[in-house]
Design a protein that fits this description.
two-stranded antiparallel ribbon
Length: 256
């Protein structure tokens, strides 16, 4: 299911009164993913994941995939091959991202909408496990000896200590945590936040030790966000894995 390149012809919108030429529009899935943020309100990390999914599909296809030539059989074959190298949850996530791009492009009249016959991805429900309070204390202890500085102006030891404390108290997702504004936290530690993924409002209260850590960090470095993160999620998780290994606790994720 490799897509051969073909000569592009200049075409026009169905509305012939318009002078907008379709050659100015995205022609391939990768181009559409790169332009997706122009018409859709998405977080930067979400846009990056869309672009990554499109790049994975086009890499499998052997080159740029024209929007007009995307079909369910090719997507299913890609999912089949991709499932041999990554976990089911990753496959399901990338499938959803490619289909979201495909549907959005179809809504704009750039291609036909996806059909229903696309390979399913089964994900077994995992047994939920969590770190104990003792393990989190060991994780905090391992933060104290971290070298160098974070790009926001804090020592990495201070940044990670605050990040762990904030995540433990709030339970918000990683994407919400790195975008959480300092101004949203009241002096008594209460805060409300609309989750970017679900749209639901969550309310929590930061403990006094976490508030003390936040105030101390703001004395060192004034900033609009509690724990800003300028790099990718993969870089964050890689550093977390190193921190967990250093603490000598069970492997875990940032899903508190």
């Amino acid at each position: 299911f490799f897509f051969s390149s073909r000569r592009r012809h200049t075409r026009y919108w169905r509305d012939w009164s318009s002078d907008v030429c379709s050659s100015d529009l995205p022609q391939t899935l990768g181009e559409y993913a790169r332009d997706y943020g122009l018409l859709h309100d998405c977080r930067p990390e979400t846009l990056r994941q869309y672009r990554m999914a499109a790049a994975l599909f086009e890499r499998w296809a052997g080159g740029p995939v024209p929007l007009a030539e995307i079909d369910t059989q090719s997507v299913s074959a890609w999912l089949r091959d991709y499932s041999q190298t990554v976990r089911p949850y990753t496959v399901r996530s990338k499938k959803a991202q490619v289909l979201s791009l495909w549907r959005a492009a179809a809504d704009e009249g750039l291609c036909e909408p996806p059909g229903r016959r696309i390979r399913s991805v089964r994900c077994a429900k995992p047994v939920v496990q969590a770190w104990t309070l003792e393990e989190v204390e060991r994780l905090l202890a391992s933060c104290r000896s971290l070298p160098r500085w974070h790009k926001c102006g804090l020592r990495r030891s201070v940044w990670w200590d605050l990040a762990v404390r904030f995540a433990w108290d709030s339970g918000v997702r990683w994407g919400d945590q790195i975008a959480f504004p300092v101004a949203a936290i009241r002096p008594d530690g209460f805060a409300s936040w609309t989750q970017s993924k679900t749209g639901r409002v969550v309310t929590f209260r930061l403990s006094e030790p976490t508030m003390a850590a936040l105030r101390a960090s703001l004395d060192i470095c004034q900033r609009p966000l509690v724990t800003p993160w300028p790099a990718s999620r993969e870089t964050f998780l890689d550093q977390l894995d190193r921190l967990v290994l250093k603490a000598g606790i069970r492997p875990g994720t940032w899903k508190w």
